[in-house]
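Render Thioredoxin domain-containing protein in 3D.
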Amino acid sequence: MAESKGPQEATGQVEPTASGTAGSRGGWHRWRPYSAAIVAVAAIFVVSAVIGAHVRAGKNTTVKPPNGVPSAAPLSIPINPAVPVTVTVYMDMRSPQSKTFAESYASTFDRLLNSGQARIEYRLVTSTDAKLGGKGSAMAANAVACAQDQGKDQFEAYVKQLWKHQPARAHDRFASAAYLEKLAEKLPGLPKSEKLQASEFVPCVNDDDHGGWVIASQKKYQQDGLGDVPVLQINGQTVSPAKDGLTPAKLVSLVEQAAALADTQPSPSASASASAPAKPSATASAPSAPSGTPSAG
């Protein structure tokens, strides 16, 4: 009896192994179609990611100014119609110094604009990204340009919103497109009829539509060697608030001096023809006044 059990035990050991192998092969055959499908889907996602990266890279090399940007100064966002004095403000949305300057001089800028003494142009730069790493300055600048696409009021309201929610320098929260979009959902001071349209704003932010324009602005800023923000120019003359001891009263005085100087300059139309009768120099109300303003670009 003992001898007859040996072969049975041996057989019993072999059969499960054979059965296990067969089961394993059967399982693979059953899963093979699903595995092929998974690989195909993964390949589609990879290709889509590559195409998306290629499109975004292409946009970063294309300089696409926001709506309302004049061709004479394609890197600037203008506020107010043409007047003899242009104040160009360079701002970095991630810089605490830029935020402090903007908030400290907001009422002075409003006074200059409302009185018609000056035109304000904003130049978005991204120096903080280079200093601290990250891309929050660049992404915020692109988002600001996307807001400008929908109008001056939307631009100003969104800039104020970013200043209000500016993260600490160590936290690059502006590098999140979702965060930038969330901040645009409800802008203080804007009626519902003028709120940012998400259907236009969100794709513009996600696709980095004005990324190339932001890069060009930063490149020009570096080439001009204007130093650290905040910095501004009054009819092309560079003023550093920190180095030059700028105050709101001094800024108004500098604008008035620039306006007086602009009034003494002959307009291009007056000097274009030597045979034309002598005319007085151009005044602030002359249509040709913008030509006395150097390009901020």
